[in-house]
Design goal:
This protein is an all-alpha fold and 192 residues long. Helices cover 73% and strands 0% of the residues. The chain is elongated and about 70 Å long. It has nine helices and no strands. It has two domains: 88 residues, Rna Polymerase Sigma Factor, Chain: A (Orthogonal Bundle), CATH 1.10.1740.10; 86 residues, Winged helix-like DNA-binding domain superfamily/Winged helix DNA-binding domain (Arc Repressor Mutant, subunit A), CATH 1.10.10.
């Protein structure tokens, strides 16, 4: 029995306030994952809200053979992918970071180190944003959300082997994109 089961049972028995406990438990974690998929704070908030409402409305269809968060994440993931398809022209990662108010943490480094770290962060975000949706999804779930392979397979409803191969390809593609960015910067600084 999961520690979410009592809240689920109470909600199903007509006590919707019990669902609030699940919302408080998972909304921040869900927001972080959705934000990395859509790249815009307001869109991520709206999608999380929409996903939580859908989860509450369809809670009776939740089969308890998987974790509640896995089921909830799947709802949010599908909403985020639908949103991305509807909104094809996407903003740059830099614009998304500005709108989100994402600022690098201050580690006490000097201005040069801070600028270098900000640029590296921007490059990684840009490279991730350019991955195709399937590769980006497994990469975000594994590297940002910290999910294990089995839960990624359950969330994306794909075989475990597919998770492994997509993650491998995503990492290779990410590495290639970052190397290309580095080569481009080197050529620019050399005046080529």
């Amino acid at each position: 029995m999961s520690d979410d089961d009592p809240w689920i049972d109470q909600t199903l028995r007509g006590q919707p306030e019990a669902f609030g406990h699940l919302v408080l438990k998972y909304q921040d974690r869900l927001f972080q994952a959705v934000f990395h998929m859509v790249g815009h704070t307001e869109d991520a908030r709206d999608l999380v809200q929409e996903s939580l409402v859908q989860a509450m409305l369809h809670l009776d269809s939740f089969e308890r053979h998987c974790a509640f968060y896995t089921w909830l994440y799947r709802i949010a993931f599908n909403a985020a992918m639908s949103h991305r398809r509807r909104r094809r022209p996407t903003a740059s990662v830099e614009q998304a970071s500005e709108r989100a108010g994402v600022e690098p943490s201050d580690r006490g480094d000097g201005p040069l180190e801070t600028l270098e770290r900000e640029e590296q962060c921007r490059q990684v975000q840009e490279a991730i944003a350019r991955l195709d949706a399937d590769h980006r999804a497994v990469l975000v779930l594994r590297e940002i959300d910290g999910r294990d392979y089995e839960s990624i397979a359950a969330i994306l409803d794909i075989p475990l082997g597919t998770v492994r191969s997509r993650l491998h390809r995503a990492r290779l593609e990410l590495r290639e994109r970052l190397q290309a960015m580095l080569v481009g910067e080197t050529q620019q600084s050399d005046g080529l």
